Amino acid sequence: MIVVHHLNNSRSQRVLWLLEELGLAYEIKRYERDPRTLRAPSSLRDVHPLGKSPVITDGALTLAESGAIIEYLVDHHPEAKLAPPPGTPERVRYLYWLHYAEGSAMPLLLLKLVFDRIEGARMPFFARPIAKSIARRVKSSLVEPQIAQQLDYIEAQLAKYPWFAGDAFSAADIQMSYPLEAAAARAGSRASRTRSGARRRSRSPCRTAGDPRRCPSTTFAAGWCAPSRRT
Ligand SMILES: N[C@@H](CCC(=O)N[C@@H](CS)C(=O)NCC(=O)O)C(=O)O
Asked: pTM score, two decimals?
């Protein structure tokens, strides 16, 4: 049986969603972030040396990296048609978004998170103005303009096709759900257009599972689960 090592509010919601789409049996082992540092508990390093989530175990296999896990599961279940056939333009777009999510979108969103935290961090009074000024300058000159550029790009691409790979839902939509939700949470109102566009194009894991109790207990997924909050 596949075991998902699930950290709260993390990329592993992608894996849970994919497993629901595939209709596979799985077990969830839950790990809680330290509320102050947001780091994963050290017990996750017993599963994989880097101690990041998601990680799955499947028999003797231990696999980390959400993109790799998605490719592994999708490859083993071609009947679910969650990847377009090789040799098609849809497949190329699928690969592009599958890699773009962690390669281009998430690093900028992580920088935004880090500099937001520096700006709001407790520190000696004499260091505060300098730290705040540097954090603001890096965000406004480097991070935020690039996030805005990427969100405009995503929005333009989603205007061309109903799903990231083309006319059909694919695992690339699952992989892209996390940066879009993170952008909405971290990048404020500029992201909300993209978020609502993506949500309209997304499928809720709970709707797929048909049982809200099976919903991953993350902030993002909880939003999808509450019918009144689903847009
Ligand atoms: N590129 C990796 C990123 C994994 C990652 O950074 N996971 C975060 C949660 S979203 C994590 O485990 N953070 C806790 C920590 O670093 O201690 C993936 O896509 O799986």
From this structure: 0.86
